Amino acid sequence: MLEAFVIATILCGFFGIVFKKNLVMKIISMDVMSTGVIAYYVLIASREGLKTPILTEALDNAAGIAYADPVPQAVILTAIVIGFSIQALMLVGIMKLARDNPILEANEIERENTP
Description:
Elements: H1 2-19, H2 23-45, H3 57-61, H4 70-100, H5 106-113
Helix pairs in contact: 1-2, 2-4
């Protein structure tokens, strides 16, 4: 069931990128899609019965405890930070573009800048 919601989120973002004409809406759609991809990655990586990889004295003495792999968590955190920085960069570009074209419609901008 969760997979269906995650796939629906990814598809909503994808169709928003394809069909929305406003550039701000395209950026929001891209954020929705990246959130869906990250949620899908977390959904695949999560498993029951694994412990958090934080060592304590009680866990140091216990043998046979399975720990979750911390690498996917690090990859997801990196993806979130990179996604946020790309969004910020695109929003700055749109702010500069909005000075000349306040409508921010992709078709209008292409029509005005085509020789």
